[in-house]
Amino acid sequence: MVKFYNGSAVVMLDKEDLTYFSRKLKTHSYVYKNGILIIKEIERQTKYLKPIKKNLTLNKYFITMDLETITTNGIMSPVCISVYDGINASSFYLSNFEN
Fold it and tell me: What is the mean pLDDT of each run of 10 residues along the chain (99 residues)?
């Protein structure tokens, strides 16, 4: 069911539950349940990234990083980080730090 109020559409998402509805104002969309805003969407125009000019010469100076994770109850958490700058390699476990 769709109703219009002051030029904006109000959509009742469940015909039996009058406390669950969606409202669309130009580029904004809101979804309320029991008077609480649960979803807010804003449509925005974005520009595409322009391609950068390729560098035809190779550079030997770079850094490599590796992040090891563990999945617990469907949530990925970082465990170990390793960094190599071409000369020095270092690794550390995040459990070794309090923060």
Answer: 53 66 84 83 88 84 90 90 90 80
Report the alpha-carbon distance of residue 85 to residue 41 in Å, rounded. Answer: 42
**Residue showing tokens 């925005």:** 44
* Residue whose tokens read 């904004």: 28
| DSSP string covering 47-97 | PPPPPPPPP-S------EEEEEEEEETTEEEEEEEEEE-SS-EEEEEGGGS
Cα separation, 42 vs 20, whole angstroms: 20
DSSP label of 12: E
Which residue's structure tokens are 């309320």?
32
Give Cβ neighbours of residue 23 (< 8 Å, ≥ 6 apart). Answer: 8, 9, 10, 11, 29, 30, 31, 32
How much is the pTM? 0.39
